[in-house]
Amino acid sequence: MKIKLDETISTSSLADYYNNPDVNVRPVLQALDVVARHLGAQHLTNVGRNFFSMRNPYPLKGGKELCWGYRQAVRVADRKLMMNVDQAAKAFYASKELMGLVLPALNARSVANIRDVSDVDKKNLDRALRKIKVVLTHRKDRKRAIFGVSEQPANQTMLKVKGDDMSVADYFSKRYVTLTYPQLPLVNVGSKRSNKKTWLPIELCEVASGQRCVKINEVDFAEITERPVSLPVLVSKRSLVRSVKPALRTIRTRLPLE
Predict the structure, then answer these.
(1) Entry's InterPro entries (predicted)?
(2) What pTM does this model have?
């Protein structure tokens, strides 16, 4: 891939703007925003125009957590530039064992309570886990997205190994580790195509960090809104300044930034 210089944006238009408000400074502000956001994206989790540090989250039920962050924008002020910073809060999937999402989806308190998974439970589990990215615990590999769950549990889902039929549970027992919960369904991290499915045991998957939870149910919403006093609703000024300070250093203009 070749990178070619397309245009040079001069910051002199900022000085001209104060003498003539009709001067268009939007390209300069957009360029400064890109520079500031680039540094934030290198160290923080980026969701839209928001950045999250993922530190000190507030735990929610169902394997989720509420994380605090900020959104920033460079603005023109009286004879100077300003970095406008607002607080942001979003729900993420907690970076823990995938079982933390499985139990609430199956309405079970513990894995010991899960005996037979009904067709209705499988549909609920499929909806809860689909598109969530996981990392494997039994070997090093890239993050993989879940495309669905198996119809049969691990000890009944069969595959071909050197021409012989073998259950997924037996395969992992011989190749990696004996499964603790072979009665649970498997997750497909291969493809939607029937001939390219890759089955993995739930207990060997962890939720990858930095995944925004798009769907907030009534329980989550009630838990967030009913405890306003215990939640760190207002991020301290010192915390915000510490977060955006590296981005401010990257912006070099002849006008002061505050």
Answers:
(1) ArgoL1 (IPR014811), PAZ_dom (IPR003100), PAZ_dom_sf (IPR036085)
(2) 0.75
